[in-house]
Amino acid sequence: MARPSAESTRESNVSIDVDALRARYARERSRRMSAGRGGTVESLDEVPGTSQDPHTAPIVRPPVRDVTDVAIVGAGFGGLLVGAHLRKAGVTSIRLIDKAGDVGGTWYWNRYPGAQCDVESYIYLPLLEEIGYIPKEKYSRQPEIFAHGQAIARQFDLYEGALFQTQVTGMRWNADSSRWTIETDRGDEILARFVCMVNGPLNRPKLPAIDGISTFKGHRFHTSRWDYDYTGGTTEGGLSRLSDKSVGIIGSGATAVQCVPHLGRDAGELYVFQRTPSTIAVRGNRPTDSSWAEQLQPGWQKQRIENFCAIMAGEPNTEDFVQDGWTDAFKRLSADPRLATITDSNERLALVELADLKLGEDIRARIAEIVGDATVRETLRPYYWYFCKRPCFHDEFLSTFNRPNVHLVDAAEGIDRITEDGVVVDGRQYKVDCLIFATGFEVGTPYARRAGYEVLGVDGLTLSEKWADGVSTLHGMTTRGFPNLIFSPGQEGQFAWFAVNVTHALTEFANHAAHIISESLRDNVTSFEPTELAEDEWVQTIIARSPRLNPGSRSNLEFQKSCTPSYLNNDGHPENVPAQNAPFAGNPMEFYSILREWRANGDFAGLDLRREQESE
Ligand code: NDP
After folding, report:
1. Are the C-beta atoms of 275 and 414 separated by less than 8 Å?
2. Are residue 85 and residue 19 in the same domain, yes or no?
3. pLDDT exceeds 80 at position 613
4. In this structure, what CATH number is given to the domain that contains residue 598?
5. What total number of domains does the chain contain?
6. Residue 439 CA, closest ligand 1 atom number
7. What are 404-421's pLDDT values in tens digits?
8. Whose CA is closest to atom 29 on ligand 1?
9. Structural domain containing residue 509
10. 276 touches ligand 1 (CB under 6 Å)
11. Per-residue b/e over 384-410, b at no fewer than 16 CB within 10 Å?
């Protein structure tokens, strides 16, 4: 199963000046701690090209009035997996609803040139064995991932009754009928016995609150709404209509890292406005070896997924099947064999800190090897602890900055403003014909704003009201006062979703959600919701496990505060996020086994159940 590693970041033997690097990390962090750095514009309507669907022609249809057993809001991999597991459990009455023009979620919207998943395809694409598909490359590109989502929808008959280009506008619980009423922007009214909300954690494009953002007169769009009519080309590149254009791109996260090489190749001039450099380790993509694929035995995918998860969880002495930049970094930071014997927490922390600094030096050394210009090189160098930001992996991004038409603009302290003609940084205006927002997705804004609708539970209580002081759930999936509602692992947490391979978390989620719903249907359960006790206990479990409250942990609050600001630490203020709004910390496999045992016990522990005869 294992393959030789060709792509680990080379581990250096350079000596590390720990104090100097610590001081540099702190200095770079404070440069970026500008007030209001995480702000977003009030409405996406302020900037065209950020909310419309450029990928599917408008769908025309009359409003739907319907009763269904299960409504699934969101047809990305989460919704598709819930649907697939429900079908496997024999549920027939299912309706998928999504604001996109097709299934796919993230992979429907994000079709920018170079869009690709940097988590290995053999573990990322779900249900490979059921679908009978082997990805073409170690890292799948957007068209293949999107097509795989469509294949799942076809195989499990999920297009039947699906409502696309349909935004849910409201959802309310009717105690009399024990049904949810779902309203949409198409005038639909759907009564659903059970609802699964799988909206995705990163679904609302983020437009930063930069002064003057709506005044720009040139062309503009967000990367998740890529305008190929304007740029020419496809996700494979060939942006021929940009050859005489000056293009600006704001952002240097995982999305920008993938599309900048194409923009650099095809645009007349390219200005990359970078606030924080990403860490760029080796990607090492390659075609799938057919002889390897032919010898795979049934169950191989689950085994590979769990192997990756074990390495991410820092399990020592685990054979590494995937062998890539992710596993390399995790092994270097958390699987040092000496950690098994050192018990003193300060010694342990010092060991991990040193490994982190060495990894940082290797990342910075790679930049020096590839980038020619000394100033550009220095601006591209990331100075922060490795997991303070989402790591990136790419083999063409850095060399793009050697092109004479590509200009890196250091906006560490922020962008001054956007004008009718371009972008101003440090008092200098950069004129551009087109401005691309690679600024990501909203994190930490109110739940209803990101979902696009409010959920009214028992007695009209909204989910936002219920969670105003902190999230409370059972297993991160159900919450008291909102019967028959299961929500996906999202930003609000309390589920083990933060495990790099998001589709693994979604698979475990879908399996559990489908179990609760299909068993409720079979057993004539009219409503389920967590008991107050079970919910309180789960909140306490999340808080007790929280590494940020543990002085011996490298993820404690002090460490998070020392991180460069990003959406991972609430833009430098992690103390403002309630401790309970966290994922289940530790080994995700432990969490999945809690769910597995809960299902195996068969008693729906912690859920208040009402059956047909009781509710009459
Ligand atoms: P990110 O949120 O990761 O990055 C946004 C970028 O915009 C950052 O560089 C950020 O700077 C910058 N930015 C935001 N606001 C401002 C501002 N006011 N002024 C200047 N710069 C600003 O978004 P992405 O679209 O890159 O990624 C979105 C998500 O999708 C991430 O979770 C990412 O990991 C994931 N993804 C995964 C991929 C995969 O291969 N699996 C591929 C692509 C994306 P700063 O860093 O300073 O905040």
Report:
1. yes
2. no
3. no
4. 3.50.50.60
5. 2
6. 7
7. 999 999 999 999 999 999
8. 440
9. 65-103+158-204+444-560+586-615
10. yes
11. bbbbbbebbbbebbbebbeeebbbbbb
